């Protein structure tokens, strides 16, 4: 089974002077000062059959506030890192607490091949050993290049083009 790891960043206060609002609205609110780098990272994996594993939301908190923790879907993972970005310990948490249990629950035959970004921040010896014991083969793509070869992004683009052509 082929698995693809995808990471998305949702910027909470993007930089810019444009605000989306209802056409003709009298009151338009805008964020005054913002940190354009403040974001949430969401990690999700999908297999070649199109099944999605439960995601993990990574927050930039020392301790995740209880109101946030209680608002997240129970099947999702919650992670934290100093930067709010995916790092070795949070990826390890995802693999051990969400991904491998999902493989077991879905009765997905192993070994599985997982394509990941080869950036050193994702890879740890501990992770490699755990994956080896659990028949998860990690295949590291060139670091910081997954946006060019991300299979889910490519598939989405191809489907959009096909839909557009069919609509004509």
TrEMBL record:
Pfam families in UniProt: DDE_1
InterPro entries: CenT-Element_Derived, DDE_SF_endonuclease_dom
Highest taxon of the lineage: Eukaryota
Residue ranges of coiled coil: none
GO cellular component labels: nucleus
DDE-1 domain ranges (all copies): 37-154
GO function terms (MF aspect): DNA binding
PANTHER family: POGO TRANSPOSABLE ELEMENT WITH KRAB DOMAIN (PTHR19303:SF74), TRANSPOSON (PTHR19303)
Protein name: DDE-1 domain-containing protein
């Amino acid at each position: 089974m082929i698995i693809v790891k995808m990471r998305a960043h949702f910027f909470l206060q993007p930089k810019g002077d444009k605000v989306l609002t209802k056409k003709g609205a009298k009151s338009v609110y805008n964020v005054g000062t913002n940190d354009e780098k403040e974001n949430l990272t969401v990690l999700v994996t999908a297999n070649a059959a199109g099944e999605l594993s439960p995601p993990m939301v990574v927050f930039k908190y020392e301790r995740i506030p209880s109101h946030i923790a209680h608002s997240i879907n129970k099947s999702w993972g919650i992670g934290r890192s100093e930067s709010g970005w995916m790092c070795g310990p949070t990826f390890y948490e995802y693999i051990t607490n969400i991904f491998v249990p999902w493989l077991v629950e879905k009765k997905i035959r192993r070994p599985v091949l997982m394509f990941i970004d080869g950036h050193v921040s994702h890879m740890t010896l501990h992770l490699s050993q755990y994956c080896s014991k659990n028949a998860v083969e990690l295949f590291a793509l060139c670091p910081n290049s997954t946006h060019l070869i991300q299979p889910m992004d490519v598939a989405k683009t191809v489907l959009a083009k096909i839909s557009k052509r069919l609509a004509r």
